[in-house]
Amino acid sequence: MARAPRKTKPINLALQGGGSHGALTWGVLDRVLEDDRLEIVGISGTSAGAMNAVVMADGLAAGGRDRARAGLERFWKAVSDAALFSPFQRSPLDKMLGNYSLDHSPGYLFFEGMSRMFSPYDLNPLGLNPLRGLLAEHVDFDRINAMNGLRVHVAATNVRTGRSRVFGPGELGVEPVLASACLPQMFPAVEIGGEFYWDGGFTGNPALYPLLSSLASPDIIVVQINPLVRHEAPRSAREIMNRVNEISFNSSLVKELRAIGLMQRVAQERNIDLGVYTHTYLHLIHTYVEVQDLVASSKLNAEWGYLRKLYDLGRGWAEEWLAQNYDHIGERSTLDLDSLEGDAHLPAPPSVPRAAE
């Protein structure tokens, strides 16, 4: 499976979802797009990762890297502007303390209580979703579907079968992206072709298998924004619920990575070629220290100042990762798959200022 040498290093990106924490991924993408040594040839995204994927792809198709960077910034600013009148606003005390959590937001607490008693079919029977208009305004899906050099995939979960459905080139549109980001507590399931879909994070966050068969690049760079490891066990009811959500939204990714690692180990031990499994290099952009302080409720906080803080963190992640690992792209994996077997033991975080919650 030899690939012809190229002036730039082609890469595939796998973008995780996480509400407004997707602004971390925006920062990563901005730094990657700034680096003309890299060429993005494939993207798989889920939820907020799917939105980042289609906005960036549309910008690349319309005018190249600068257009894509500008498009991502415009999209996230539009998300923030649309949330100005949202009931999910920080409490005065949190604003004074510089805390971006919504754990004390009256609007958030009211919704949290209501969502445990009523479904979105009761509270939102018309299926209104502010992201529908934003996607229609900021993304030309016909242009993305017609692209030749970049393949984009978004994942959703089939409610009836419980299986992942990946929408690929020629299938992308507003509805598949909304399906990929459809949290069942907030929105009615999205109907596509007679089937109903929820958030792709339940079954593929993000889905890696669409990128495994890429002949354009052996490298898959996963941008992970949900904490994989927590240093302290949750104690409060909210902390327990948040950790359950984190585990469930990471489990599909961990399973895929473990499966790839197993196949690669078998290939190495038996000295056999297992095709794409043998010739895939895995990488991970993720900084566990900062995400320890990103609480779940802040995924619904779309204040511009907060999104910019997350963007800056994401750019920093990418800057550090590229400085350490650029030379290894196209040569070997930089993700230690053995760390995903059994318990993950990470060093305690250093004493650093807390990231914005």
Describe the structure.
Helix 1 runs parallel beside helix 2 (48-63), helix 2 crosses helix 3 (65-82) and helix 3 (65-82) runs antiparallel to helix 7 (130-138). This protein has 357 residues and is an alpha/beta fold. It has helices at 22-34, 48-63, 65-82, 92-97, 106-115, 120-123, 130-138, 141-145, 174-180, 209-212, 237-270, 288-291, 304-325; strands at residues 9-15, 38-46, 151-158, 164-167, 190-192, 195-199, 219-223, 281-285. Strands 1, 2, 3, 4, 5, 6, 7 and 8 form an eight-stranded mixed sheet that branches. Strand 7, helix 11 and strand 8 form a beta-alpha-beta unit.
**Helix and strand sequence:** EHEHHHHHHHEEHEEHEHEHH
The helix-and-strand class reads alpha/beta
Strand content: 5-15%
Count of β-strands: 8
Q: Could you report the average pLDDT, rounded to the nearest whole number?
A: 86
Rg, Cα atoms, Å: 20 Å
Q: Gap between N and C termini, in Å?
A: 45 Å
Characterize the main sheet: 8 strands, mixed
Uncertain ranges = 342-357
Number of helices: 13
Helix content: 40-55%
Shape: globular
Short description, anyone?
The protein has 357 residues and is an alpha/beta fold. Helices cover 43% and strands 13% of the residues. It has 13 helices and eight strands.
Characteristic terms for this protein:
357 residues, alpha/beta, 13 helices, disordered C terminus
Topology of helices and strands:
Elements lengths: L8 E7 L6 H13 L3 E9 L1 H16 L1 H18 L9 H6 L8 H10 L4 H4 L6 H9 L2 H5 L5 E8 L5 E4 L6 H7 L9 E3 L2 E5 L9 H4 L6 E5 L13 H34 L10 E5 L2 H4 L12 H22 L32
Parallel strand pairs: 1-2, 1-7, 2-3, 7-8
Antiparallel strand pairs: 3-4, 3-6, 5-6
Helix pairs in contact: 1-2, 1-3, 1-13, 2-3, 3-7
